[in-house]
Design goal:
Distance between the termini: 53 Å
Radius of gyration: 22 Å
Strand content: under 5%
Largest sheet: 2 strands, antiparallel
Number of helices: 4
Helix content: 55-70%
Structural class: mainly alpha
Number of domains: 3
Length: 121
């Protein structure tokens, strides 16, 4: 019984920390599933926040004005957000590059497997 209450307390603590980072559900789930490791994960995650380039406080990723220093945050500061690849909107050059990267990776992995197979066998 004490174990279950302790585990539930990790879930609640992680939810409280996650709420400060805008990730209450993932904080609760991390605490409920992983206990103390979930607490470390929740403490280390940045949530949906990014540092202000002027005062370095954590602000929401979609914020246009920093609440601490009142600096205007431009779209250029959002460049850290990864651009997703959409096949239907990609140019022919981007499609070839996308396919070529995957083919090169597969060839490399086959080479690595063959090298280890020859050394072991």
């Amino acid at each position: 019984m004490v174990f279950i209450l302790g585990w539930l307390s990790f879930a609640l603590i992680c939810a409280a920390i996650g709420s400060k980072k805008g990730e209450i559900v993932s904080g609760f789930l991390a605490g409920a599933l992983f206990g103390p490791l979930g607490l470390l994960f929740t403490l280390g995650s940045s949530g949906n926040r990014k540092p202000c380039p002027f005062c370095k406080t954590q602000v929401h990723k979609e914020a246009t004005i920093c609440p601490a220093c009142r600096s205007e945050l431009f779209a250029a500061t959002n460049s850290c957000v990864k651009k997703s690849f959409i096949w239907s909107k990609a140019t022919e050059e981007e499609k070839w590059f996308f396919v070529a990267k995957r083919v090169a990776f597969v060839i490399f992995m086959i080479f690595v497997v063959l090298v280890f197979y020859v050394r072991i066998g």
